[in-house]
Design brief:
Largest sheet: 5 strands, parallel
Radius of gyration: 23 Å
CATH topology of the largest domain: Rossmann fold
Oligomer: single chain
CATH superfamily of the largest domain: NAD(P)-binding Rossmann-like Domain
Organism: Mesorhizobium helmanticense
Helix content: 40-55%
Strand content: 5-15%
Pfam families: Mannitol_dh, Mannitol_dh_C
Keywords: NAD, Oxidoreductase
Number of helices: 19
Distance between the termini: 52 Å
Bound molecules: D-mannonic acid
Shape: globular
CATH class of the largest domain: Alpha Beta
GO molecular function, one term: oxidoreductase activity, acting on the CH-OH group of donors, NAD or NADP as acceptor
Protein name: Mannitol dehydrogenase
Order of helices and strands: EHHEHEEEHEHHEHHEHEEEHHHHHHHHHH
Number of strands: 11
Strand order of the largest sheet: 5-2-1-6-7
CATH architecture of the largest domain: 3-Layer(aba) Sandwich
Structural class: alpha/beta
Number of domains: 2
């Protein structure tokens, strides 16, 4: 197969494939997206595609990769087009998405990314950069000692991090009198907009201090500012950071998917994206510079996303991590297989029951319906969502998925046995790499200190206490010791008897 999916070939695809119904040449960029991975392409880009089809032509997406050029290399020869394959046991539908107009690779050309961010047509910047890219220290504040932050403070015009790009472009927009864009965080962090806002103000304050030290309190290039409000103050007061809850399960694309989809299209698609039928996006409605009419495409616009976010992080993502680690320890490679294991299924039901009381009781959440739907989604055999994929970056994910609920249950006088078993399963799965699991089966930013720690063969409770300290779990919290004790008891049982041994202590 020689010919490639592109503007030229898209109209000749089989009639069963849905293609953009709008003239892509007439779409103007209005959104810059940082982190143009598979999740973005299955979620925000698909919603925006519908807005473009409905005639809102000002909201095309400029996709930015902050690290590698892989996505650009695959999609640029395809004019940014790719196939979204929506799959469940009932079948598959193929949709070519046209909302990504161009692709940039930040390390290759930071100037081009800054040009897109400062383009007055850019009114929204969305982000899916994964939890670890927010560069939070164990206590939750900005990790000011991180080498990339240090780099960006020293080289504000050539940034590497999302923080550096946002700060520099907001400074330049302010200097030219251009309204700030709205920053819409789409990562699985609690209060994600507010969290990014706080981190960016912290970053900008360090940047302001640095520039002041260099004898220039003004934003570089700004003729109109005379050291009045700092950039930090400007970001704190003038830039909107609505929070949002995003949801769609998106397994990593495999070579088999590539070959199969290209065969169905009759032209090569170098990077199609696989996903499930379900999708959800709940966004706080705070867009001073305007926004697409997302509500017409099924997005829920709200005043406070908190309750939706907590429900999603604690029930969906919490149980996803549980299924990943317990599944790996039980030899299950995919979520549907792990979830079909009766012991894991029973454990997940108990885990949900333990976490539900931490959710707001007065927000109208229908948790029974939500978990029934999760059970159906996790049983989707067509997705083959790998447990190892979800297992990545546990130290960054567990705080909001598991540890927060465990702290709250413990404070309320309950014993969070299931929640702490998930933390123990994470530690056990990390220890199992290079033994019963392949060496780099999944990775974590804390791998270096974790591997060193496991090599010391400390008593279990000491190991767990050190892991909590490294990851900042329940840092400085009154419940810390209780949670360490519970986790250590589970870890001991996991080491002795595997998941079955740990489940037995819970009557499973
Ligand atoms: C998963 C999420 O990989 C993971 O950690 O839990 O990516 C999950 O599939 C999405 O949040 C679903 O919306």
């Amino acid at each position: 197969m020689t010919s490639r999916l592109s503007n030229d070939t898209v109209q000749a695809l089989p009639a069963s494939v849905a293609v953009p119904s709008y003239d892509r040449a007439r779409i103007a960029p209005g959104i810059v997206h940082l982190g143009v991975g598979a999740f973005h392409r299955a979620h925000q880009a698909a919603y925006v595609d519908e807005c473009l089809a409905a005639g809102e032509t000002d909201w095309g997406i400029v996709g930015v990769s902050l690290r590698s050029g892989d996505t650009r290399d695959a999609l640029a020869p395809q004019d940014g087009l790719y196939t979204l394959a929506v799959r469940d046991s009932g079948g598959e539908s193929l949709n070519v998405i046209g909302s990504i107009l161009s692709l940039l690779v930040a390390p290759e050309n930071p100037g081009a990314v800054l040009a897109a961010l400062t383009d007055p047509r850019t009114r929204i910047v969305t982000l899916t950069i994964t939890e670890k890219a927010y560069l939070r220290a164990a206590g939750g504040g900005l990790d000011a000692a991180h080498p990339d932050i240090v780099h960006d403070l020293a080289n504000p015009h050539m940034p590497k991090t999302a923080h550096g790009f946002l700060a520099e472009s907001l400074a330049r927009r302010r200097a030219t009198g251009c309204q700030p864009f709205t920053v819409l965080c789409c990562d699985n962090l609690p209060a994600n907009g507010a969290t990014l806002h706080r981190l960016l103000v912290e970053f900008a304050a360090l940047r302001d201090a640095r520039l002041a030290q260099q004898g220039d309190a003004r934003v570089p290039g700004d003729a109109r500012l005379t050291g009045d409000a700092s950039l930090a103050q400007h970001i704190a007061d003038e830039v909107a950071f609505p929070s949002s809850m995003v949801d769609r399960i998106v397994p990593a694309t495999t070579d088999t998917d590539r070959t199969r989809i290209s065969g169905l299209l009759g032209v090569e698609d170098a990077w199609p994206v696989m996903t499930e039928p379900f999708r959800q996006w709940v966004i706080e409605d705070d867009f001073p510079a305007g926004r697409p009419s997302w509500e017409k495409s099924g997005v829920t616009m709200v005043g406070d996303v908190g309750p939706f976010e907590d429900m999603k992080l604690r029930l969906l993502n919490g149980s996803h991590s549980a299924i990943a680690y317990l599944g790996l320890l039980s030899g299950h490679a995919t979520v549907d297989r792990a979830f079909a294991d009766p012991a894991i299924r029973q454990f997940v039901d108990q885990l949900w029951a333990e976490a539900i009381p931490t959710l707001p009781q007065d927000a109208g959440l229908d948790t029974a319906d939500y978990i029934a739907q999760l059970a159906r989604r996790f049983s989707n055999t067509a997705l083959a969502h790998r447990t190892a994929q979800i297992a990545n970056d546990g130290s960054q994910k567990l705080p909001q998925r598991i540890v927060a609920s465990a702290i709250e249950r413990s404070e309320a006088g309950a014993v969070p046995e299931r929640l702490t078993l998930v933390v123990a399963a994470w530690i056990a799965a990390c220890e199992a790499r290079g033994r019963t699991l392949p060496e780099n089966h999944f990775t974590d930013p804390l791998d270096l200190p974790l591997v060193a720690l496991f090599g010391r063969n400390l008593p279990t409770e000491e190991t767990v206490a050190t892991v909590f300290d490294l990851a900042g779990f329940a840092k400085d919290h009154t419940e810390l010791q209780t949670l360490i004790g519970l986790t250590a008891a589970h870890l001991e049982r996991l080491r002795q008897g595997g998941p079955a041994g740990a489940f037995a202590a819970l009557g499973i």
